[in-house]
Design goal:
single chain, alpha+beta, 29% strand
Length: 93
Amino acid sequence: MSKLYVGNLPSDINEATLRQLFLDNNLPCGTILIKRGGYAFVDCADQSIADKAIDQLNGANFLGTQIQVEPSVAGTTRKRSPVQSGGDQMVKS
């Protein structure tokens, strides 16, 4: 399964409307997760469908906005470095 990031969506977008965009372009998709802030994640059955979606939909005009479609960079979390104690602290006297 390949996951796509779809950005620059209208704030009132819903799953059915986004799914219809993919179906209208002969791009079957699985789960669609709409997030606040105008973006979504879309699961594609395989990499070839994901690649076609990127080619056909990235930069396309959708409901008055130019959408962004690219591979999702999922599963990466940023870890904060722990606060180090010791020599880096200033001591007032």
